[in-house]
């Protein structure tokens, strides 16, 4: 038994040595054969790793935008179009809720000193929003509860609005017209301040006004979009459940009257989409591996033809068919493995460069590496099997006639 195992190990060692010698003896042909596998594995590694890095960067950005918040969009019913101020007070009183900031959006025409700009995004905000985001206002004051209660025509403007209408002029105290209605500017805010899940869908706001004023300008008395800030230590699932329990009676338990969006649901959707994208790109890149496998098969068939005499001598001296087959399979496997390892290294380097260029996170995907190396090894065995089988079935007498 031990003798048999030892002889098998020696045979495999000799096969590996002969394979290396044959590969090294045909450097150019071996390189061109390996090149197909190398390109395929590089493409698989680079694409999947880059997509993973981009997905990680997007997920981090979304998490920071919506950390501790839930977005609620109200479709309403025939009896109730949206929520009123008292409904928001009921939701705010929930133990799972720290506070609520309604958002009332409108597209407006802005006019000042004869200059006009259309399709400006104006958002109605509550005083609680500025209480939670104290670093928003860079100049002047924030909107407060007095502005809400009095439905005041005051506003905060972004740097973009200042550059457009008040270049080199302090805008505080100036008057601008929003859809023909005069508003007094009481402050400026940073353009990237309108964060949260709602901002992902509604876009960047250029002007903030009291949400009660925005409702009046929209000729509406109900709120259809708001952001819920969860109490400390409360999970999004628990907060969502509490909101559903409170909101269902408001809409007489009708279905599809509102939508609760959490960061978890967005991340799940993102993971599904990026997973599908990685699979698709990996499948496309794998075509190059198949082409490389055909190259290996072609080379091995040529090798069998060139080494007919060698095969005949080995079989005449007692080599068995399965030993000949293993020798050629090992050679095919080594060619593909060399291309696979080189492709992994080149693919990681390429994905690192791409992540630096596009500004995404570089994430080493173990799944991509395993796929690249495993697929390349499988290609070597699969496409090397037919030439190896052909070599093993050569008749030693016919092979020796070629001498």
Overall description:
With 403 residues, the chain is α+β, with helices and mostly antiparallel strands. The chain contains 14 helices and 11 strands. It has helices spanning 2-25, 27-66, 85-92, 127-132, 145-149, 159-165, 197-202, 211-217, 236-250, 263-306, 308-316, 321-358, 366-392, 396-400, and strands at 69-74, 97-102, 104-112, 115-125, 137-140, 154-158, 175-178, 181-189, 207-210, 225-230, 258-262. A 6-stranded mixed beta barrel has the order 3-4-9-6-8-7. Strands 2-10-1-11 form a 4-stranded antiparallel β-sheet. The longest helix is centred in the C-terminal third of the chain and has 44 residues, at 263-306. The radius of gyration is 34 Å and the shape is elongated. The model is unreliable at 193-202 (pLDDT under 50).
């Amino acid at each position: 038994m031990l003798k048999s195992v030892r002889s098998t190990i020696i045979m495999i060692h000799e096969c590996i040595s002969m394979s290396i010698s044959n590969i090294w003896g045909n450097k150019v042909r071996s390189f061109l054969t390996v090149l197909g596998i190398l390109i395929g594995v590089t493409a698989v590694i680079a694409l999947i790793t880059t997509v993973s890095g981009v997905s990680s960067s997007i997920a981090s950005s979304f998490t920071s935008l919506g950390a501790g918040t839930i977005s609620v969009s109200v479709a309403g019913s025939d009896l109730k179009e949206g929520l009123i101020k008292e409904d928001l007070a009921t939701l705010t009183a929930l133990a799972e809720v720290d506070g609520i900031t309604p958002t009332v959006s409108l597209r407006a025409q802005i006019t000042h000193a004869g200059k006009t700009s259309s399709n400006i995004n104006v958002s109605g905000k509550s005083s609680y929003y500025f209480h939670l985001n104290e670093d928003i206002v860079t100049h002047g004051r924030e909107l407060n509860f007095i502005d809400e209660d009095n439905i005041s025509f005051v506003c905060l403007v972004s740097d973009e609005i200042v550059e457009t209408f008040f270049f080199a002029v302090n805008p505080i105290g100036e008057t601008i017209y929003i859809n023909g209605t005069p508003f007094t500017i009481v402050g400026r805010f940073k353009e990237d301040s309108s964060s949260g899940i709602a901002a992902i869908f509604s876009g960047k706001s250029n002007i903030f006004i009291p949400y009660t004023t925005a409702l009046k300008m929209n000729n509406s008395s109900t709120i259809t979009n708001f952001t819920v800030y969860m109490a400390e230590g409360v999970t999004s699932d628990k907060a969502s459940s509490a909101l559903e329990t409170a909101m269902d009676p408001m809409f007489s338990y009708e279905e599809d009257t509102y939508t609760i969006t959490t960061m978890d649901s967005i991340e799940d959707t993102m993971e599904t989409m990026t997973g599908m994208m990685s699979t698709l790109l990996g499948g496309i890149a794998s075509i190059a591996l198949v082409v490389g496998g055909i190259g290996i098969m072609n080379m091995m068939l040529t090798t069998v033809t060139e080494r007919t005499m060698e095969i005949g001598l080995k079989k005449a001296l007692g080599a068995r068919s399965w030993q000949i087959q293993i020798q050629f399979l090992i050679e095919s496997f080594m060619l593909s493995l060399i291309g696979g390892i080189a492709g992994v290294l080149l693919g990681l380097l390429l994905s690192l460069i791409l992540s630096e260029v596009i500004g995404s996170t570089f994430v080493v995907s173990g799944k991509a590496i395993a796929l690249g190396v495993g697929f390349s090894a499988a290609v070597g065995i699969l496409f090397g099997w037919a030439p190896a089988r052909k070599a093993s079935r050569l008749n030693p007498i016919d092979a020796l006639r070629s001498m």
